[in-house]
Structures are given as structure tokens and as C-alpha cells.
Design a protein that fits this description.
Blueprint (H helix, E strand, L loop, with lengths): L2 H5 L4 E7 L7 E7 L1 H56 L5 H28 L8 E3 L1 H11 L1 H6 L3 E5 L7 E3 L1 H18 L9 E9 L3 E7 L28 H11 L3 E6 L4 E8 L13 E4 L2 E5 L1
Parallel strand pairs: 4-6
Antiparallel strand pairs: 1-2, 1-11, 3-5, 6-7, 7-9, 8-9, 10-11
Helix pairs in contact: 2-3, 4-6, 6-7
């Protein structure tokens, strides 16, 4: 049951159109849009559920690399702890050496904690929360999430970040999910290439005065020109084991944030461009647009 239906809320849509002189005044119409809004809320809830499932699937894909990444600081902590015990058992204790060992333990513990926090964030099942987003930091964090996966698959990544990017606004968990999905898709597309050709390029830029753009480009087999428009459709996939929901959900998330996403041939490979509005222009009540302006008319939902 949608939230609005459970609470007994009702929605109306009010249109006001100015009447030219000499009559003046305005023509006002009022419509009950409760059924439509309840359907939108139900669809939004289904989208959130699908996004959660997608995050769980993504975590499953990353489980091997996450285990490998987490094992590194844990092994280092064990090694340093054993070295500290040997130092304590020796006849002479070097305090500077012991301090260095303990600092290494603290550093490795913080690294392990960050890996766990990133994993929990990826699997976050809480409600969506909008916040101002520094896009360079978000993209860098998404790349860090898949860094060990890139290492295991022998993919070289390059990151070019534009300076002085304006902030965007939205749910950082959902947006990070979009970029993690794009990066993993790129890894899959390059799986059959020689190691030296497996390259992923990611860059951020400002597009005009209003948009922030993130470009993800791989050097894989690409997509036929006549199929480019279909890759964001549900259940469409070029992978043998794919579900065909990752790009569909990515587009839905980006559009819910007031942005857009499209793909184009990179020759070789595929280039995916994600555009998001700056914070001042972001959808105020996403994921459902509550108020919009149309030519000469004010459309208000209350």
C-alpha cells in the first residue's frame, strides 16, 4: 500500500491561467489527482525495492574482491600484533619501534573500518535521504569501491576531475550505486581483451551553467549503433549471465534526480554520459516532481 493511501491523503491539481484585459482576472481549474499520485508513490516504492535488490546483487559480484581487500589490513594487523608480542618478550624493548608497530595497527584498523563502511553503504536499506553532493568525491569513492575488483581483472583506470565543480543534490547511496554499476559493466565489457587494452577512463566536467557531467568510457566490444537506444530498457542485456536491470535502474535513479543519461559509441568501446543538475536546480522534492512551470501557467500540486 502506498504511503499516501495508508495515511488517507488526497491530492488536487490547481491550474491558473491569466485572462487578458479588458476582462482581467484568471481562469482557475481544480482536479482530483489522488489516484494518479497514489500510483506514482507505489511505482516509486517498487523502484526503491528494485534498487535495493540491485545493490545486493552488486555486493554479491564484489564479494570476492571485498574479501580480498579486507583480508589485507587484517593480515597486516595480525603481523604487527605478533611483532609487538615478540618485542615485548625480548630482553630490551624499543619504545620507538613499539610505537611504530602500534601506529601501523591503528592505520590498518582504520582501513578495514573504511572498507566495512563502504560495504554497508552499498547495502544500505534505509530510506532515501537527500544531501548536497560533491560529485568528484562521490565518483572517487565509487572507484575506490571497485578498486580491488579492477586489480583482480587487470583493468587500468584513469580519473580526471574537473576543478570548481558546483555541488549537486540527491541520495549519495543511490548515485554511488549508479557509478559502481557502470564501472562493473565496463569491466565485463573488457573481460576478453588483452590485459594491456583493458582501460577505463572516468572524468567529470561542467556542462553549461546548470549541469554536472560524469563520463565513463571503456575500450570493450561496444554496442551496435542500432542497439544503443535499447541498453537502458528493462531486461535488455548483452551478458550471458546478466539480468538486464542494472542500466534500467541507473537511468531511473538519474532521472529521479532531475538528470539524464545516454550512451554513445567510443570506437572502440562504449561511452556513458551522466548529467545531473547543480544543487540549486535539482528536483526539490525528488523522486516525484511536485511542482513545475509550464508556458504562462502555474501548475501546483498540493
Amino acid at each position: 500500500m502506498a504511503d499516501g493511501e495508508a495515511l488517507g491523503e488526497e491530492w488536487v491539481e490547481l491550474y491558473a491561467t491569466a485572462i487578458s484585459p479588458p476582462l482581467g482576472g484568471a481562469l482557475v481549474s481544480l482536479s482530483d489527482i489522488t489516484a494518479r499520485k497514489r500510483a506514482e508513490l507505489a511505482a516509486s516504492e517498487r523502484l526503491r525495492d528494485l534498487a535495493r535488490v540491485s545493490r545486493a546483487v552488486t555486493l554479491g559480484v564484489l564479494s570476492g574482491s571485498l574479501a580480498h581487500e579486507l583480508n589485507q589490513p587484517l593480515t597486516a594487523i595480525l603481523s604487527n600484533a605478533q611483532a609487538g608480542l615478540r618485542l615485548l618478550d625480548s630482553s630490551s624493548i624499543s619504545l620507538p619501534q613499539l610505537r611504530e608497530i602500534l601506529l601501523d595497527v591503528v592505520g590498518d584498523d582504520q582501513r578495514a573500518g573504511e572498507i566495512i563502511r563502504r560495504t554497508r553503504r552499498l547495502l544500505d536499506l534505509g530510506e532515501s535521504e537527500a544531501a548536497e553532493i560533491e560529485m568528484n568525491a562521490l565518483v572517487r569513492g565509487a572507484l575506490q569501491t571497485v578498486a580491488d575488483e579492477a586489480l583482480l581483472r587487470r583493468v587500468r583506470t584513469t580519473l580526471v576531475l574537473a576543478s570548481d565543480l558546483p555541488r549537486s543534490r540527491g541520495d549519495p547511496v543511490q548515485l554511488e550505486q549508479v557509478f559502481v554499476n557502470l564501472f562493473l559493466n565496463a569491466f565485463d565489457a573488457m573481460a576478453d581483451l588483452p590485459r594491456e587494452d583493458r582501460r577505463l577512463a572516468v572524468r567529470t566536467t561542467q556542462r553549461g551553467a546548470e549541469l554536472i557531467e560524469v563520463i565513463v568510457e571503456d575500450r570493450g566490444k561496444g554496442v551496435d549503433q542500432d542497439q544503443l537506444g535499447r541498453i537502458f530498457e528493462p531486461f535488455y542485456t548483452t551478458k550471458r549471465s546478466g539480468m538486464g536491470m542494472g542500466l534500467y535502474l541507473s537511468r531511473a535513479i538519474i532521472e529521479a534526480h532531475g538528470g539524464c543519461v545516454h550512451a554513445e559509441s567510443a570506437r572502440p568501446g562504449l561511452r556513458v554520459c551522466v548529467c545531473l543538475p547543480r544543487a540549486e536546480r535539482a528536483t526539490r522534492h525528488w523522486p516525484l516532481v511536485q511542482c513545475q512551470r509550464e508556458r504562462g501557467r502555474h501548475k501546483v500540486i498540493c
